[in-house]
Amino acid sequence: MKRMFARASFRKTAIRLTLDALYFTGAFRMLRERCGGVGIILTLHHVRPARQDAFQPNRSLEITPEFLEAVILEFRRQGLEFIGLDEMHRRLCEGCFSNRFVCITFDDGYRDNLEYAYPILRQHRIPFAIFVASDFADWRGHLWWRTLESVASANDRVTIMVEGSPRTFACRSVAEKIATVRAVHQIMSGLTHEAEVRTFAELAAMMAIDTVADCSAACMSWKELSRLAADPLVTIGAHTVSHPHLRKLAPEAARREMEAGAARVESMLGVRPRHFAYPFGDASAVGLREFAYAAELGFRTALTTRPGVLSAGDRNHLTSLPRISVNGDYQRLRHLRVLEAGAATLAWNGVRRLKRAPAR
User: Fold this and answer.
1) 112 close to 46: Cβ distance less than 8 angstroms
2) Between 65-77 and 333-341, two packed helices, what is the crossing angle to 10 degrees?
3) By three-state DSSP, how is residue 62 classified?
4) Which residue in 287, 282, 289, 262 sits closest to 273, CA to CA?
5) CA–CA separation, 8 and 349 (whole Å)
6) 50-58 — which CB contacts under 8 Å span 24+ positions?
7) Where are the domains of the chain?
């Protein structure tokens, strides 16, 4: 477990050093013209005030309101144009690239998007999209990453039943708690979707965690989402029903998750989602099968979490578009400048390739 913790820490340090090297040498500026593409889509999850807890295994999912505003001001200073997903789709399809652009997107539908992000975005007249997992808005979803954080935070030892066998982890120190979270994530990656759901349901029951209360505390209701949907700045997109790793599901189950999630959004908000974001969104969670489903279901675009900038050629891959994560691990404007320039993500994708959706 210590080796796993050390490897993860080393990886984050290496990424920061690479971003810093590209920034402080000025290399990212020289590469922007060749690698910067026509625009970028940003991925965000939580926007809320910074917490001081030493143990924050999900810190990568959040940024502060101050940093969000700094990002807006920085990109405007650079001359990038903030646009919505419908306009992005039009420009890609028609080849209209007079200005590089930025699209802001939020995954899952957390209440802090309404409380902290929305006032800033409304003040600056920034269009943005929120991708809603319908079970979360119905307050019956299981945010298992929060369950795991709660359990590891409150206990010195954690036992998890994995397909009937107990796995016990020491959680005395912050380092052990973080290593436990990473070890459990690794174990879950090798399980079927059904076994994964069962494991975390058993953990929540054993530790007396009210998953309904947890979901309702974290996620917006349909009434709150309706308030946002009434604003022309806001696009509501689909994000499945239960937020699964789609590639773990049988074909009919994966397609049903995508179709039913969009149908639930339409039934509650009165508008059919035109855009889709794949849960988790990396190569382990989504592939050619899901890209084809998104096209069959009529989504104008579907977004991965594969890091990258948009190019003119993405008009041929509208259901496998890349995004750049704005997260707490790299909450520095200089890091975002490098990522926006495209050089770092180009190098990353040279190592980790994700097959793209075919042209349609």
Assistant:
1) yes
2) 50
3) strand
4) 262
5) 19
6) 53/153, 54/174, 55/149, 55/152, 55/153, 55/174, 55/177, 55/178, 56/328, 57/145, 57/148, 57/149, 57/152, 57/177, 57/178, 57/181, 57/182, 58/145, 58/146, 58/149
7) 2-139+221-351, 144-211
pLDDT at 351: 42
Taking only the tens place, the pLDDT of each residue in 52-88 is 999 999 999 999 999 999 999 999 999 999 999 999 9
> Which residue has better confidence, 37 or 23?
37
CB 116 within 8 A of CB 220: no
**Among all chains, which residue has been given the structure tokens 């929305």?**
118
| Listed residue (353, 256, 297, 325) closest to 41, CA to CA | 325
Q: What is the pLDDT of residues 202-238, one digit of tens each?
A: 999 999 999 999 999 999 999 999 999 999 999 999 9
Least confident of 36-50, 147-161, 339-353: 339-353
How far is the C-alpha of 265 from the C-alpha of 132, rounded, in Å? Answer: 8
Sign of CA dihedral 285, 91, 314, 31: negative
- Through-space distance between the first and last CA atoms of the chain, rounded to whole angstroms: 46
- Residue type present at position 262: A
* pTM over 0.90, yes/no: yes
Query: How many residues are present in the chain?
Result: 360
Measure the CA–CA gap between 281 and 6, rounded to whole angstroms: 25
Q: Which amino acid is it at 276?
A: F
Please name the residues in contact with 25: beta carbons below 8 A apart, sequence gap of 6 or more.
none
Separation CA 281–CA 277 (nearest Å): 7
Q: Which of the four CATH numbers 1.10.760.10, 3.20.20.370, 3.40.390.30, 1.10.238.10 does domain 2-139+221-351 have?
A: 3.20.20.370
CB 279 within 8 A of CB 245: yes
